[in-house]
Design brief:
heterodimer, A: mainly beta, OB fold (Dihydrolipoamide Acetyltransferase, E2P), five-stranded mixed sheet, 2 helices, 5% helix, 43% strand, B: 281 residues, Heat Shock Protein 90, 2 domains, six-stranded mixed sheet, 15 strands, 22% helix
Chain lengths: 170, 281
């Protein structure tokens, strides 16, 4: 059965796999590093717009925006993970993720430098991330996926959505 | 059926009640909720009968002691009914359970109060899902905030002659006979203010819990009715902010929580007061 499925990349239409195995992930860039999230969590991809500031919020939380009547918080992943520079230009993009747990559904937008491809990967492709080093906290990392010669860090959306306790800055 | 009605009437008269029973419906706002009260002047709930039935059904142990309120809560258990005979509209033990679940699914709760011989009251508490507020839009730096109209005492242009500094840090504004503390919103919210100079700013005097405070803002914008959206759905409760709204241009504006802001300012003031100063080597 495995031989019937053409290997990734060998199609007449570039970059598109019609026959897929496993799960799909949306990859994006933070500086020159590749990250990915489960594509089923992706609600929408928006261009950057200045959000309304939430007073005394943590630095990575830029504020909230109006998304079709819903108030959606915007978190800058470049600040949260301390990767690259948090600049806001035409190509700056917000990936809106919705995570559904049994009792609650939460929609949060994440600012990233650019959106990349849709990646197909099976569970076996996801390797555990080394526990040492790195600025991204362990709880956010689901694992690593090898893509050609580079590595894509798969993020845990549920933990990403966890909003830290709001504190008064003073 | 008629015989039962006559019998009930006789019992009512004997208890000093009018022949006809009254069921009253009352609804009002309380906090961020709507409260609906259904009161009757009937026989009240027989706690003993309820308790015994619950023991009979194995819901509780006969040795348990329960408060009246706890006994009434048993009424909402699925399958619970104290009647001996089922009628076409009641007695199956299904109704109350469904009522409670429906209310809870709306984020509300139901409470029962009862006085045997006097009557019962069912109190339903439902959170407001669509709350509307009359607000005054104000500009602080680049941000627009909404001040609930109901808390505004007055708005004025600051006259620098009426500003007094007291005990080092506190800035007071003389408003006729009152000395109103001035609260710079940009400071409380750690914002980039366009104008940090008092004499160029506007003062929105608000009041909560008998305490008057002057909010320092850069500009007064329109007054309008806004729909309050909770920040708790996708984020969490924020100090000094009671909710958010979507303005006509599609942008989001924060609605100020006046009692909350006054509380925050008090806390901040107390914090700086109790902090001892150290000599820096």
């Amino acid at each position: 059965m495995a031989q019937d499925i053409p290997p990734e990349g060998e199609h007449s239409i570039e970059g598109l796999d019609f026959i897929t195995n496993g799960d799909q992930y949306l990859t994006f860039l933070l500086a020159d590093e590749q990250y990915a999230v489960d594509i089923l969590c992706v609600e929408e991809i928006r261009s950057w717009e200045r959000p309304t500031i939430i007073p005394n919020s943590p630095l990575c939380i830029k504020g909230v925006i109006n998304m079709r009547g819903i108030i959606v918080p915007i978190v800058d992943l470049r600040v949260k993970f301390n990767v690259g520079e948090a600049i806001y230009i035409e190509t700056t993009v917000v990936i809106v993720l919705t995570y559904q747990s049994e009792d609650k559904s939460r929609t949060i937008g994440f600012v990233v430098d650019a959106v990349s491809d849709v990646l197909n990967a099976e569970e076996s492709d996801i390797k555990p991330a080394p526990a040492f080093g790195g600025r991204v906290a362990q709880q956010f990392i689901e694992g690593l996926i090898n893509s050609d010669t580079s590595v894509v860090t798969l993020l845990n959306v549920e933990n990403l959505q966890h909003v830290e306790e709001h504190r008064v800055a003073n | 059926m008629q015989l039962i009605t006559v019998l009930n009437q006789k019992i009512r008269i004997a208890n000093g009640k009018p022949e006809k029973g009254t069921i009253s419906l009352d609804a009002y706002h309380q906090g961020g909720n709507i409260v609906i009260e259904i009161t009757d002047d009937g026989a009240g709930i027989n706690s003993e009968a309820v308790f015994n039935k619950a023991v009979e059904k194995g819901l509780i142990d006969s040795n348990t002691t329960l408060t009246d309120a706890q006994v009434y809560d048993l009424l909402f258990e699925p399958g619970f009914s104290t009647v001996e005979e089922v009628t076409d509209i009641s007695g199956r033990g299904v109704g109350m359970d469904v009522v409670k679940r429906n209310i809870q699914s709306l984020g509300g709760r139901i409470q029962v109060e009862s006085k045997p011989g006097k009557g019962s009251k069912f109190k339903v508490n439902l959170p407001l899902t669509l709350a509307i507020l009359d607000g005054q839009l104000v500009k602080v730096g680049t941000e627009v905030y909404i001040v609930p109209l109901i808390s505004i005492v007055e708005s004025l242009q600051i006259d620098s002659k009426l500003i007094n500094k007291v005990s080092g840090d506190m800035v007071l504004y003389r408003l006729r006979d009152d000395n109103v503390p001035i609260l710079p919103i940009y400071q409380l919210f750690n914002l980039e203010a366009e104008n940090r100079e008092l004499h160029k700013a506007l003062l929105v005097v608000v009041e909560a819990d008998g305490q008057k405070v002057g909010l320092m803002v850069d500009d007064l914008l329109a007054q309008q009715q806004v729909v309050i959206k909770s920040l708790k759905d996708n984020y969490q409760q924020v100090g000094g902010i009671s909710g958010a709204t979507i303005l006509g241009d599609g942008s989001v504006a924060m609605i100020l929580d006046i009692p909350g802001i006054i509380h925050m300012a008090l806390e901040n003031a107390q914090r700086t007061q109790t902090q001892p100063s150290y000599n820096v080597a």
